[in-house]
Write a structure and sequence with these properties.
Elements: E1 9-14, H1 15-21, H2 23-26, H3 32-43, E2 49-53, E3 62-66, E4 69-73, H4 79-89, E5 94-98, H5 102-110, E6 114-116, H6 118-133, H7 142-152
Parallel strand pairs: 1-2, 1-5, 2-4, 5-6
Antiparallel strand pairs: 3-4
Amino acid sequence: MTADRRGPVHTLVDAHNLIHADAGLRALAGDPAAARAALARRLDGTARMHLVCDGGPGGIARTVLQGTVIMVYSGTASADDAIVRWLRERADARAVVVSDDRELIARARSLGAREVRCRLFLRGLQARGEAANDPRRGPPPAHEVEMWMKTFGIEDEEAR
């Protein structure tokens, strides 16, 4: 990302790609709507999370809010193309693309986005879930915060 990009980080998830990277979600892949709904439930509570899906109900491109997750249905275009279009239309936005699709990652990088591979993203979700369920756990350790800030390209406000 370029240094002049400011504001919150938007996470654009290649839904189909992430579903197939997780064993539990992959088991639901025969029913795409159920798999997308299960993934959206796992992502709920995360700000600026865009779950970009191929096709959609009736094959119509549309965006709906499911909990706190922004569900983007690509209609007749591919989800990859919908992600690239989002990045082009918001050239000044800070964005992270979650995918293992090399072509999509290359296109996203060329538009200034950062990438997170599906496995790393899923590990982060798992850690978040475990932390949320552990009443003994306090705030995350500094090294963990630093790692996620670096991954998402977030600068420490106090360091400026």
